[in-house]
Amino acid sequence: xxxxxAIENCKSLLKDxxxxxxxxxxxxFFNCLNPVHEDRHPSMKYTDKFNxxxxxxxxxxxxxxxxxxxxxxxxxxxxxLQILExxxxxxxxxxxxxxIDYTESNEIIDFTNYFNKCKKNICKSDYLLQxxxxxxxxxxxxxxxxxTKNLIVFPINENCYFARSTINNSKxxxxxxxxxxxxxxxxxxxxxxxxYVTESIIDSLSLESIDPNIKTISLNGLPNYKRLLxxxxxxxxxxxxxLAFDNDKAGNxxxxxxxxxxxxxxxxxxxxxxxxxxxxxECKDLNEALIKDKEKLKRNYEYxxxxxxxxxxxxxxxxxxxxxx
Length: 325
Ligand SMILES: [Zn+2]
Hints:
By secondary structure, the chain is of the alpha/beta class. It folds into three domains: 84 residues, Zinc finger, CHC2-typedomain (DNA Primase, Chain A); 62 residues, no CATH class; 131 residues, Dna Topoisomerase Vi A Subunit, Chain: A, domain 2 (3-Layer(aba) Sandwich). Helix content is 38%, strand content 14%. It contains 13 helices and eleven strands. It has a four-stranded antiparallel beta sheet with strand order 4-5-6-7, covered by helices on one side. A hairpin with a 4-residue loop joins strand 1 and strand 2. The site of zinc ion (ZN) has 9 residues, from loops.
């Protein structure tokens, strides 16, 4: 069906593609391109022996088509070929002239049509219902369902989305800058703002399901706390953050790390333990708590929020102070 030799020839373009589209130096290790791997130390390396890159941490092993597939969000080999042909017009692999429609710019993709299509199909999945998420939030955030890939799609903005699989545990981030969920809340904040920060969108939606008036953002991966710092700094954020990360080792470690980093830029933050000792068996995250016992999570949250706000009021407000509750 395809010209095998032509395809092999294309694979040698990987080195160029890494340089021109990812600004990667192919002689050094770089951050893993697997969107599911939160690579904190560069662990991917290019090898021209196979014209592939390999991650020494998660074992991802990609040729140029795999990476185009990730960058342009397509698993169809034919579409990957079409994109490659468009990027490298000298390399002809396909005979037909049917070109797929993607934006001229290699860097930015407009997902609006995709979001609209997914939104229409959201009723075909009960994934969020089973997770006790308040269904009015689906409309509020234009959440959709990609039925061909079995993904719940959470638009971040027209050029970026997060998605999670309804059939396994994979989480996907589209091409585009790694924004924070509800990032505008940071920009619109004032000195009385209190924003709950969670690890994942589903955790933020869980909080919003028990308190529709809560202000909550999610990092979409703990390493993205750096964006929290930079957006807060750039917007002179002067409210308070409540860090409600997962009840596990990584969550606890990052909770103190992020608290310290915020402290350094004079932003006050608190950690919350409202899901510790939640039931006889512990809950890992807010959504698990919501599923196990919504009323109890609500009570814990209301208790925390109430004590917390009284405390804030009483101590108004020594900036950057490390409060202990
Ligand atoms: Zn990796």
